[in-house]
Design a protein that fits this description.
single chain; 123 residues; Arc Repressor Mutant, subunit A; mainly alpha
Length: 123
């Protein structure tokens, strides 16, 4: 898992960390049971405070995406299958929304767009 933080972003560092870990889980890069780097190791690697990493891990645990075992570390939860499905569905919705806005700008009506979609899905 590669984490890239933007220190000039208006998004807090812990939220960037949360978003990137969620994305890695959704992509299947981090599978259920996978160990995450320790708080100290990830903080040192990213050159940020351990408290920032701890806050991100705690939030992810509150959302049910991580499980922390004291003395062993933090792991991707076995119960995140719903999150993965919802994340994929949301990403597809965003892509389709953008595409539909572009298609509507061509002047086609909804029936014509549906016909095109049906034709494309048949291929």
């Amino acid at each position: 898992m590669k984490i890239i933080l933007n220190h000039s972003s208006m998004v807090p560092i812990y939220e960037q960390l949360i978003n990137q870990i969620k994305a890695a889980i959704a992509r299947g890069e981090l599978k259920a049971g996978s160990a995450l780097p320790s708080v100290r190791n990830l903080a040192a690697e990213l050159k940020i405070s351990a408290l920032t990493v701890k806050k991100a891990y705690d939030r992810l645990e509150e959302e049910g995406l991580l499980v922390t075992v004291h003395g062993k570390g933090s792991f991707v939860s076995e119960r995140n299958l719903g999150f993965i499905a919802e994340s994929r569905r949301h990403e597809a919705e965003m892509i389709l929304s953008e595409a539909l806005e572009r298609v509507k700008s061509t002047g086609l009506n909804n029936d014509e767009i549906r016909q095109l979609i049906d034709i494309i899905l048949e291929d």
